[in-house]
């Protein structure tokens, strides 16, 4: 590990003697630029230090269904990862027949559409739901199901399952477009936005800002978060998890961060508000991810 002071000494300082800069550049400008470079360098050192820690959050759930060949033997540029609940058969069918399915099933788009679910814990219908999922997988071959309880408080597990699967089974793709099964976006616009931002940024997350950052402390509320789970009054800036996009290289960083960061069950806060800053991934809003409900 490089100590911060030694990192500063190791970082070259720009001056007007460098051929990259004209001799009449203001010295204050150079000082500002050197400060910026130093800050970025130290951020990267912090990322290396963080990722060198051993994982504290295991995500080793067994696969009930895993179409591991979904990205094999063909070029895949975009993974449309749709998180869904086991019982949402109609939403998945509508998604296949809607804009995302149309885009993914068009060969020239080099895309694939996959659904991520957990295991139902319904008090008397879980077996029925599982039989339905088994039949759905046999018919469409696009279900990725891990053996964890699919519950409101396990949203983060489902999002991490997306990051893990892409990291292991589709690492050569370019982008991930992650969405809920009832959140509609225009796929072509989302891919265009990701491609455009990729020209300027190596890693990033695109989405729609969540403007409601006050932590819910009423115990009877569905989205209640205890002080033990999260001690601060407000959540860090983050985009809504219902629709977000990022490069596959970002998915790899976020997955590694998720194994080491303090866990939080609210997935959009955890992924884009907690994990992203830990690996120096900028989070930005773009209208292409301004989703609409129940439009497939």
Key terms:
about 300 residues; Spore Coat Polysaccharide Biosynthesis Protein SpsA, Chain A; six-stranded mixed β-sheet; two-stranded antiparallel sheet; 9 helices; about 40% helix; disordered N terminus
Report low-confidence residues grouped into runs of 5 or more.
1-9, 14-21
- Quick check: average pLDDT? 91
| Coarse structural class | alpha/beta
Individual helix count = 9
Q: What is the 3D form?
A: globular
Distance between the termini: 49 Å
* E-strand count: 10
Major β-sheet profile = 6 strands, mixed
Strand fraction equals 15-25%
**Helix share, percent:** 25-40%
CATH fold group of the largest domain: Spore Coat Polysaccharide Biosynthesis Protein SpsA, Chain A
> SSE string, helix = H, strand = E?
HHEEHHEHEHEEHEEHHEE
Protein name: Hexosyltransferase
Keywords: Glycosyltransferase, Golgi apparatus, Membrane, Signal-anchor, Transferase, Transmembrane, Transmembrane helix
Family: Belongs to the glycosyltransferase 31 family.
InterPro entries: Glyco_trans_31
């Amino acid at each position: 590990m490089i100590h911060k002071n030694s990192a500063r000494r190791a970082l070259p300082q720009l001056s007007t003697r460098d051929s990259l800069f004209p001799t009449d550049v203001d010295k204050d400008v150079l000082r500002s630029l050197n400060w910026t470079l130093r800050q970025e360098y130290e951020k990267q050192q912090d990322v290396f230090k963080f990722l060198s820690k051993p994982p504290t959050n295991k995500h080793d759930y067994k696969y009930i269904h895993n179409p591991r060949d979904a990205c094999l033997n063909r070029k895949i540029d975009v993974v449309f990862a749709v998180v869904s609940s086991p019982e949402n058969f109609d939403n998945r069918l509508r998604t296949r027949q809607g804009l995302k399915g149309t885009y993914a099933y068009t060969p020239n788009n080099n895309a694939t559409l996959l659904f991520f679910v957990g295991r139902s814990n319904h008090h008397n219908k879980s077996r029925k739901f599982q039989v339905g999922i088994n039949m759905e997988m046999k018919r469409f071959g696009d279900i990725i199901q891990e053996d964890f309880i699919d519950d409101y408080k396990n949203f983060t597990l489902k999002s991490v399952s997306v990051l893990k699967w892409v990291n292991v089974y589709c690492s050569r793709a370019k982008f991930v477009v992650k969405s809920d099964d009832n959140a509609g976006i225009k796929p072509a616009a989302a891919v265009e936005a990701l491609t455009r931002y990729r020209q300027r940024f190596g890693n990033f997350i695109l989405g729609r800002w969540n403007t409601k950052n006050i932590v819910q402390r009423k115990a009877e509320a569905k989205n209640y978060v205890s002080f033990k789970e999260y001690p601060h009054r407000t959540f860090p800036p983050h985009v809504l998890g219902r629709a977000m996009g990022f490069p596959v290289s970002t998915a790899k960083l976020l997955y590694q961060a998720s194994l080491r960061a303090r866990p939080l069950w609210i997935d959009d806060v955890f992924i884009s508000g907690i994990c992203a800053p830990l690996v120096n991934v900028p989070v930005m809003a773009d209208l292409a991810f301004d989703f609409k409900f129940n439009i497939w």
